[in-house]
Design a protein that fits this description.
Blueprint (H helix, E strand, L loop, with lengths): L11 H4 L6 E3 L7 H4 L10 E3 L12 H10 L5 E3 L8 H10 L5 E3 L8 H10 L5 E3 L7 H8 L9 E3 L8 H10 L5 E4 L7 H10 L7 E4 L3
Parallel strand pairs: 1-2, 2-3, 3-4, 4-5, 5-6, 6-7, 7-8
Length: 215
């Protein structure tokens, strides 16, 4: 359900009903006000709030916490460039939405290692996570892949994370046996050592997609 960008804060309540399972709002101009209306959508499994071009400032931690408290069956939370989101919102998702499989936090500048730690610890079924262009560090990535989700993780996007080093790449490759997409381009602290680790640890057919930047 998205109606090609026509959903707004003022009309979303007319469209929603308790049986809604998928809500695509990526091309809609909405704020926390709209998300507060999701309190009756307890069967919601997929929420797309990605912003394809500009940062989405009107969706904040308040709105995401409201979603987390109502939509415990959420499988997919796409929040790319929701730059007003903080760790508090991701913690709410991690603690209340334990069935999450796909989480996109790319460009969410307010999140830190705390978010990755919470996802790793609580979201046992996590398969794909994107935290590209955020301020996370090696500590957050290691915490993520030290949790129960490590055995399920198939896809990690961590490009343009300026704080990450080879330690993160090595942690993912050694602890995530199912990983087949690993993107770490634009990370200036990651060196050729990661490429060597890739060659040592990963067979030729295992990874479908890898990107990195040589510095």
């Amino acid at each position: 359900m998205s109606l090609q960008g026509q959903i707004t804060d003022s009309n979303i309540s007319e469209i929603l009903h308790p049986e809604v399972q998928t809500l695509d709002l990526q091309s809609c101009d909405i704020s926390d006000t709209a998300l507060l209306h999701l309190c009756n959508c307890r069967k919601l499994k997929k929420l797309n709030l990605n912003s394809s071009k500009e940062n989405r400032v009107s969706v904040t931690t308040k709105g995401i916490k409201a979603v987390a408290s109502s939509c415990s069956y959420l499988h997919e939370a796409s929040l790319k460039r929701c730059c007003s989101l903080t760790d508090e919102g991701v913690l709410a998702l991690a603690h209340n939405c334990r069935l999450l499989k796909i989480v996109d936090l790319g460009g969410c500048l307010g999140i830190t290692d705390v978010s990755l730690h919470a996802l790793g610890e609580n979201c046992f079924f996590l398969q794909s996570v994107d935290f590209s262009a955020t301020q996370v560090s090696d500590n957050g990535v290691v915490a993520l892949v030290s949790g129960p989700c490590a055995k399920k993780l198939e896809e990690i996007h961590m490009g343009h994370c300026v704080n990450l080093t080879d330690e993160s790449v090595e942690a993912v490759l050694t602890r995530c046996p199912q990983i087949h997409i690993l993107l770490f381009h634009g990370c200036p602290l990651i060196t050729d050592h990661s490429r060597e680790v890739l060659e040592q640890l990963v067979g030729p057919n295992k990874l479908k997609q890898v990107t990195w930047t040589a510095y």
